Amino acid sequence: MKIASVIDANFPTLNPEQRTIVETTEGPLLIIAGPGSGKTFSLVLRTLNILCLEKAKPSEIVVCTFTEKAALELRDRIQSAAAKVGYAGDLSDLRVGTIHRICHRILIQYRHHTELGNSFQVLDELTQQLFLFEQFKLVFGEPINGLFLGKWTTKWTAIEGIIAFFNKITEERLDPADLINSPNEFLSALGSAYKRYRQAQFDHNRIDFAVIQALAFDIISDTNVGRKVCSGVRYLMVDEYQETNYIQEQILLTLGATSKNVCVVGDEDQSLYRFRGATVRNILEFPRHFPECARVPLTTNYRSHKAIIAAYDRWMASADWSGPGTTQFRFDKSIHPFEPESHPDYAAVLSIWTQSNSD
Fold first, then answer.
1. Do 155 and 101 fall within a single domain?
2. How many CB atoms sit inside 10 A of residue 333's CB?
Protein backbone atom coordinates (compact mmCIF):
# COMPACT_ATOMS: atom_id res chain seq x y z
CA MET A 1 0.00 0.00 0.00
CA LYS A 2 1.35 3.38 -1.01
CA ILE A 3 0.36 7.01 -1.35
CA ALA A 4 1.86 9.01 -4.21
CA SER A 5 4.44 11.50 -2.92
CA VAL A 6 2.67 14.45 -4.57
CA ILE A 7 -0.48 13.64 -2.61
CA ASP A 8 1.45 13.29 0.64
CA ALA A 9 3.13 16.64 0.03
CA ASN A 10 -0.04 18.54 -0.87
CA PHE A 11 -2.49 16.93 1.56
CA PRO A 12 -0.54 16.43 4.81
CA THR A 13 -3.57 16.59 7.15
CA LEU A 14 -5.06 13.17 6.36
CA ASN A 15 -5.99 11.32 9.52
CA PRO A 16 -4.91 7.64 9.88
CA GLU A 17 -8.25 6.26 8.63
CA GLN A 18 -8.29 8.58 5.63
CA ARG A 19 -4.71 7.58 4.80
CA THR A 20 -5.72 3.92 4.87
CA ILE A 21 -8.57 4.62 2.43
CA VAL A 22 -6.33 6.53 0.02
CA GLU A 23 -3.56 3.94 0.01
CA THR A 24 -5.82 0.85 -0.14
CA THR A 25 -6.20 0.54 -3.89
CA GLU A 26 -6.47 -3.21 -4.43
CA GLY A 27 -9.41 -5.46 -3.63
CA PRO A 28 -12.84 -4.73 -2.18
CA LEU A 29 -13.12 -1.95 0.39
CA LEU A 30 -16.00 -0.97 2.67
CA ILE A 31 -15.86 2.56 4.11
CA ILE A 32 -18.31 3.14 6.94
CA ALA A 33 -18.42 6.93 6.95
CA GLY A 34 -20.08 8.80 9.79
CA PRO A 35 -21.53 12.29 9.23
CA GLY A 36 -19.03 15.09 8.56
CA SER A 37 -16.11 12.63 8.44
CA GLY A 38 -14.53 13.71 5.14
CA LYS A 39 -15.71 10.76 3.05
CA THR A 40 -15.87 12.74 -0.21
CA PHE A 41 -12.40 14.15 0.47
CA SER A 42 -11.10 10.60 1.00
CA LEU A 43 -12.81 9.35 -2.16
CA VAL A 44 -11.33 12.21 -4.21
CA LEU A 45 -7.78 11.50 -3.02
CA ARG A 46 -8.19 7.74 -3.46
CA THR A 47 -9.19 8.32 -7.08
CA LEU A 48 -6.26 10.66 -7.57
CA ASN A 49 -3.84 8.23 -5.91
CA ILE A 50 -4.86 5.47 -8.33
CA LEU A 51 -4.20 7.84 -11.22
CA CYS A 52 -0.90 9.19 -9.89
CA LEU A 53 0.41 5.67 -9.25
CA GLU A 54 -0.65 4.81 -12.83
CA LYS A 55 -2.72 1.86 -11.72
CA ALA A 56 -5.47 2.80 -14.19
CA LYS A 57 -6.33 5.25 -16.93
CA PRO A 58 -9.13 7.75 -16.23
CA SER A 59 -11.44 5.82 -18.58
CA GLU A 60 -10.98 2.68 -16.44
CA ILE A 61 -12.28 4.32 -13.26
CA VAL A 62 -16.00 4.58 -12.45
CA VAL A 63 -17.11 6.79 -9.57
CA CYS A 64 -20.83 6.71 -8.75
CA THR A 65 -22.80 8.89 -6.40
CA PHE A 66 -26.47 9.43 -5.67
CA THR A 67 -27.43 12.81 -7.18
CA GLU A 68 -26.40 14.86 -10.21
CA LYS A 69 -25.39 17.71 -7.89
CA ALA A 70 -23.13 15.42 -5.85
CA ALA A 71 -21.63 13.99 -9.06
CA LEU A 72 -20.79 17.47 -10.38
CA GLU A 73 -19.23 18.40 -7.03
CA LEU A 74 -17.21 15.19 -7.00
CA ARG A 75 -15.90 15.78 -10.52
CA ASP A 76 -14.97 19.38 -9.68
CA ARG A 77 -13.14 18.33 -6.53
CA ILE A 78 -11.19 15.62 -8.36
CA GLN A 79 -10.16 18.13 -11.04
CA SER A 80 -9.20 20.70 -8.40
CA ALA A 81 -7.13 18.18 -6.45
CA ALA A 82 -5.50 16.96 -9.68
CA ALA A 83 -4.49 20.52 -10.57
CA LYS A 84 -3.07 21.01 -7.07
CA VAL A 85 -0.76 17.99 -7.33
CA GLY A 86 0.11 18.65 -10.96
CA TYR A 87 -1.51 15.56 -12.47
CA ALA A 88 -1.27 16.00 -16.23
CA GLY A 89 -3.59 13.23 -17.41
CA ASP A 90 -6.83 13.84 -19.32
CA LEU A 91 -9.67 13.62 -16.79
CA SER A 92 -12.41 14.04 -19.40
CA ASP A 93 -12.58 10.23 -19.73
CA LEU A 94 -13.07 9.72 -15.98
CA ARG A 95 -16.53 8.18 -15.52
CA VAL A 96 -18.09 10.18 -12.70
CA GLY A 97 -21.87 10.32 -12.38
CA THR A 98 -25.03 8.90 -10.90
CA ILE A 99 -25.80 5.23 -11.41
CA HIS A 100 -28.47 6.29 -13.91
CA ARG A 101 -25.86 8.29 -15.82
CA ILE A 102 -23.41 5.37 -15.87
CA CYS A 103 -26.20 3.05 -17.10
CA HIS A 104 -27.24 5.58 -19.75
CA ARG A 105 -23.68 5.65 -21.07
CA ILE A 106 -23.64 1.84 -21.31
CA LEU A 107 -27.01 1.92 -23.05
CA ILE A 108 -25.90 4.44 -25.67
CA GLN A 109 -22.80 2.40 -26.50
CA TYR A 110 -24.61 -0.95 -26.67
CA ARG A 111 -28.09 0.16 -27.75
CA HIS A 112 -28.08 -2.32 -30.63
CA HIS A 113 -28.41 -5.11 -28.06
CA THR A 114 -31.81 -3.76 -27.01
CA GLU A 115 -35.15 -2.99 -28.68
CA LEU A 116 -34.40 0.74 -28.62
CA GLY A 117 -33.87 2.79 -31.74
CA ASN A 118 -31.41 5.60 -32.31
CA SER A 119 -31.91 8.87 -30.37
CA PHE A 120 -34.20 7.31 -27.78
CA GLN A 121 -35.83 9.69 -25.30
CA VAL A 122 -35.44 9.40 -21.54
CA LEU A 123 -38.58 10.11 -19.53
CA ASP A 124 -38.15 12.03 -16.30
CA GLU A 125 -40.79 12.02 -13.55
CA LEU A 126 -43.00 14.57 -15.33
CA THR A 127 -42.69 13.23 -18.88
CA GLN A 128 -43.26 9.70 -17.60
CA GLN A 129 -46.63 10.85 -16.30
CA LEU A 130 -47.41 12.62 -19.59
CA PHE A 131 -46.42 9.52 -21.56
CA LEU A 132 -48.81 7.42 -19.49
CA PHE A 133 -51.53 10.00 -20.10
CA GLU A 134 -50.93 9.70 -23.87
CA GLN A 135 -51.03 5.90 -23.67
CA PHE A 136 -53.69 5.74 -20.98
CA LYS A 137 -56.32 3.68 -22.81
CA LEU A 138 -53.71 1.20 -24.04
CA VAL A 139 -52.15 0.71 -20.59
CA PHE A 140 -55.22 0.89 -18.34
CA GLY A 141 -58.10 -0.10 -20.58
CA GLU A 142 -61.66 0.92 -19.75
CA PRO A 143 -62.76 1.42 -16.14
CA ILE A 144 -64.78 -1.37 -14.55
CA ASN A 145 -67.43 -0.23 -12.10
CA GLY A 146 -65.88 3.22 -12.26
CA LEU A 147 -62.40 2.03 -11.27
CA PHE A 148 -59.22 1.73 -13.35
CA LEU A 149 -57.59 -1.66 -12.64
CA GLY A 150 -60.16 -1.96 -9.87
CA LYS A 151 -58.28 0.59 -7.75
CA TRP A 152 -58.32 4.20 -9.01
CA THR A 153 -61.24 6.52 -9.77
CA THR A 154 -59.56 9.17 -11.98
CA LYS A 155 -56.93 9.12 -14.70
CA TRP A 156 -54.37 11.21 -12.82
CA THR A 157 -54.65 9.29 -9.56
CA ALA A 158 -54.26 6.10 -11.59
CA ILE A 159 -51.16 7.46 -13.33
CA GLU A 160 -49.56 8.71 -10.12
CA GLY A 161 -50.38 5.49 -8.32
CA ILE A 162 -49.25 3.04 -10.95
CA ILE A 163 -45.83 4.62 -11.55
CA ALA A 164 -44.65 3.49 -8.12
CA PHE A 165 -45.80 -0.05 -8.91
CA PHE A 166 -44.18 -0.03 -12.37
CA ASN A 167 -40.86 1.27 -11.00
CA LYS A 168 -40.92 -1.35 -8.25
CA ILE A 169 -41.55 -4.16 -10.73
CA THR A 170 -38.60 -2.97 -12.85
CA GLU A 171 -36.19 -2.29 -9.99
CA GLU A 172 -36.92 -5.53 -8.15
CA ARG A 173 -36.61 -7.54 -11.39
CA LEU A 174 -40.06 -9.05 -10.99
CA ASP A 175 -41.42 -11.22 -13.80
CA PRO A 176 -44.73 -9.70 -15.01
CA ALA A 177 -45.85 -13.21 -15.99
CA ASP A 178 -45.84 -14.16 -12.30
CA LEU A 179 -48.09 -11.19 -11.59
CA ILE A 180 -50.41 -12.01 -14.48
CA ASN A 181 -50.80 -15.56 -13.16
CA SER A 182 -51.50 -14.35 -9.63
CA PRO A 183 -54.93 -15.20 -8.14
CA ASN A 184 -55.05 -11.61 -6.89
CA GLU A 185 -57.11 -9.65 -9.44
CA PHE A 186 -55.24 -6.39 -8.98
CA LEU A 187 -51.79 -8.00 -9.29
CA SER A 188 -52.91 -9.87 -12.40
CA ALA A 189 -54.23 -6.66 -13.99
CA LEU A 190 -51.07 -4.81 -12.91
CA GLY A 191 -48.83 -7.38 -14.62
CA SER A 192 -50.75 -7.05 -17.88
CA ALA A 193 -50.69 -3.25 -17.68
CA TYR A 194 -46.93 -3.31 -17.06
CA LYS A 195 -46.31 -5.45 -20.16
CA ARG A 196 -48.35 -3.04 -22.27
CA TYR A 197 -46.49 -0.07 -20.77
CA ARG A 198 -43.04 -1.52 -21.50
CA GLN A 199 -44.03 -2.38 -25.08
CA ALA A 200 -45.45 1.13 -25.58
CA GLN A 201 -42.12 2.57 -24.48
CA PHE A 202 -40.22 0.55 -27.06
CA ASP A 203 -42.80 1.34 -29.76
CA HIS A 204 -42.30 5.07 -29.14
CA ASN A 205 -38.53 4.82 -28.47
CA ARG A 206 -38.84 6.13 -24.90
CA ILE A 207 -37.65 4.73 -21.57
CA ASP A 208 -37.96 5.81 -17.95
CA PHE A 209 -35.16 5.90 -15.37
CA ALA A 210 -35.97 2.48 -13.93
CA VAL A 211 -35.92 0.85 -17.38
CA ILE A 212 -32.53 2.46 -18.15
CA GLN A 213 -31.12 0.47 -15.26
CA ALA A 214 -32.93 -2.73 -16.26
CA LEU A 215 -31.62 -2.60 -19.83
CA ALA A 216 -28.08 -1.76 -18.70
CA PHE A 217 -28.18 -4.70 -16.32
CA ASP A 218 -29.36 -6.99 -19.12
CA ILE A 219 -26.40 -5.81 -21.23
CA ILE A 220 -23.72 -6.37 -18.59
CA SER A 221 -25.28 -9.72 -17.63
CA ASP A 222 -24.85 -10.99 -21.20
CA THR A 223 -21.93 -13.43 -21.28
CA ASN A 224 -20.08 -11.87 -24.22
CA VAL A 225 -21.08 -8.21 -24.11
CA GLY A 226 -20.93 -8.06 -20.33
CA ARG A 227 -17.37 -9.37 -20.30
CA LYS A 228 -16.34 -6.55 -22.62
CA VAL A 229 -18.08 -3.87 -20.55
CA CYS A 230 -16.85 -5.10 -17.17
CA SER A 231 -13.26 -5.65 -18.31
CA GLY A 232 -13.05 -1.92 -18.98
CA VAL A 233 -13.77 -1.13 -15.31
CA ARG A 234 -10.60 -1.56 -13.28
CA TYR A 235 -11.76 0.49 -10.30
CA LEU A 236 -15.31 1.10 -9.14
CA MET A 237 -16.14 3.50 -6.31
CA VAL A 238 -19.66 4.14 -5.02
CA ASP A 239 -20.66 6.93 -2.65
CA GLU A 240 -23.90 6.85 -0.59
CA TYR A 241 -24.12 3.08 -1.02
CA GLN A 242 -26.83 2.89 1.63
CA GLU A 243 -29.18 4.64 -0.83
CA THR A 244 -28.95 1.98 -3.55
CA ASN A 245 -31.86 -0.32 -4.40
CA TYR A 246 -31.82 -3.95 -5.51
CA ILE A 247 -31.13 -3.49 -9.21
CA GLN A 248 -28.49 -0.84 -8.55
CA GLU A 249 -26.71 -3.21 -6.20
CA GLN A 250 -26.77 -5.94 -8.87
CA ILE A 251 -25.44 -3.54 -11.51
CA LEU A 252 -22.56 -2.39 -9.31
CA LEU A 253 -21.64 -5.90 -8.15
CA THR A 254 -21.63 -7.09 -11.77
CA LEU A 255 -19.49 -4.16 -12.98
CA GLY A 256 -16.95 -4.85 -10.24
CA ALA A 257 -16.97 -8.64 -10.46
CA THR A 258 -14.02 -8.88 -12.85
CA SER A 259 -11.49 -6.67 -11.06
CA LYS A 260 -12.97 -6.95 -7.53
CA ASN A 261 -11.60 -3.46 -6.96
CA VAL A 262 -14.93 -2.29 -5.58
CA CYS A 263 -14.99 0.47 -2.98
CA VAL A 264 -18.33 1.41 -1.41
CA VAL A 265 -18.83 4.34 0.94
CA GLY A 266 -21.85 4.91 3.13
CA ASP A 267 -23.47 5.07 6.51
CA GLU A 268 -26.45 2.93 7.43
CA ASP A 269 -27.43 5.60 9.97
CA GLN A 270 -28.06 8.05 7.12
CA SER A 271 -30.32 5.94 4.89
CA LEU A 272 -32.98 8.42 3.74
CA TYR A 273 -34.47 7.09 0.51
CA ARG A 274 -36.22 3.87 1.50
CA PHE A 275 -39.44 5.36 0.11
CA ARG A 276 -37.76 5.21 -3.32
CA GLY A 277 -36.77 1.58 -2.96
CA ALA A 278 -33.36 2.05 -1.36
CA THR A 279 -32.44 -0.70 1.07
CA VAL A 280 -29.93 -0.33 3.89
CA ARG A 281 -29.33 -4.08 3.60
CA ASN A 282 -27.03 -3.44 0.62
CA ILE A 283 -24.31 -1.81 2.70
CA LEU A 284 -24.84 -4.16 5.64
CA GLU A 285 -24.50 -7.21 3.39
CA PHE A 286 -21.57 -5.97 1.28
CA PRO A 287 -19.11 -8.14 3.29
CA ARG A 288 -21.17 -11.20 2.36
CA HIS A 289 -20.50 -10.55 -1.32
CA PHE A 290 -16.83 -9.84 -0.62
CA PRO A 291 -15.80 -11.70 2.56
CA GLU A 292 -12.20 -10.56 2.04
CA CYS A 293 -13.10 -6.87 1.95
CA ALA A 294 -11.13 -4.42 4.05
CA ARG A 295 -13.21 -2.25 6.40
CA VAL A 296 -12.34 1.30 7.34
CA PRO A 297 -14.58 3.33 9.66
CA LEU A 298 -14.49 7.12 9.40
CA THR A 299 -15.68 8.15 12.85
CA THR A 300 -14.21 11.63 13.35
CA ASN A 301 -16.87 14.30 12.77
CA TYR A 302 -15.24 17.55 11.60
CA ARG A 303 -18.53 19.39 11.11
CA SER A 304 -20.74 19.25 14.19
CA HIS A 305 -20.62 20.62 17.73
CA LYS A 306 -19.27 18.09 20.22
CA ALA A 307 -22.52 18.20 22.21
CA ILE A 308 -24.52 17.24 19.11
CA ILE A 309 -22.13 14.38 18.36
CA ALA A 310 -22.31 13.09 21.94
CA ALA A 311 -26.13 13.21 21.95
CA TYR A 312 -26.30 11.41 18.59
CA ASP A 313 -23.85 8.75 19.72
CA ARG A 314 -25.73 8.11 22.96
CA TRP A 315 -29.07 7.90 21.19
CA MET A 316 -27.85 5.45 18.53
CA ALA A 317 -26.13 3.31 21.16
CA SER A 318 -29.33 3.12 23.22
CA ALA A 319 -31.13 0.97 20.62
CA ASP A 320 -30.86 -2.76 20.14
CA TRP A 321 -29.58 -3.29 16.59
CA SER A 322 -29.42 -7.07 16.74
CA GLY A 323 -31.55 -9.21 14.46
CA PRO A 324 -32.31 -12.92 14.24
CA GLY A 325 -29.29 -15.15 14.72
CA THR A 326 -26.07 -13.24 14.08
CA THR A 327 -27.77 -10.54 11.98
CA GLN A 328 -26.96 -6.94 12.90
CA PHE A 329 -28.84 -3.92 11.54
CA ARG A 330 -26.04 -1.47 12.29
CA PHE A 331 -22.25 -1.57 12.18
CA ASP A 332 -20.65 -1.20 15.60
CA LYS A 333 -19.20 2.31 15.68
CA SER A 334 -18.87 5.36 17.87
CA ILE A 335 -18.67 8.90 16.45
CA HIS A 336 -16.42 11.46 18.11
CA PRO A 337 -15.62 15.14 17.48
CA PHE A 338 -12.41 16.55 16.05
CA GLU A 339 -10.70 17.37 19.33
CA PRO A 340 -8.43 20.26 18.21
CA GLU A 341 -11.60 22.12 17.18
CA SER A 342 -12.89 24.58 19.77
CA HIS A 343 -16.61 24.43 20.46
CA PRO A 344 -18.46 27.46 21.87
CA ASP A 345 -20.59 26.87 24.92
CA TYR A 346 -24.23 27.17 23.84
CA ALA A 347 -27.37 25.05 23.80
CA ALA A 348 -26.43 22.87 20.82
CA VAL A 349 -28.98 20.17 21.68
CA LEU A 350 -32.61 20.93 22.57
CA SER A 351 -35.32 18.60 23.87
CA ILE A 352 -38.94 19.46 23.09
CA TRP A 353 -41.69 17.79 25.14
CA THR A 354 -45.36 17.84 24.20
CA GLN A 355 -48.55 16.66 25.86
CA SER A 356 -49.67 14.44 22.97
CA ASN A 357 -48.55 13.11 19.60
CA SER A 358 -50.77 15.63 17.82
CA ASP A 359 -49.09 18.71 19.36
1. no
2. 17
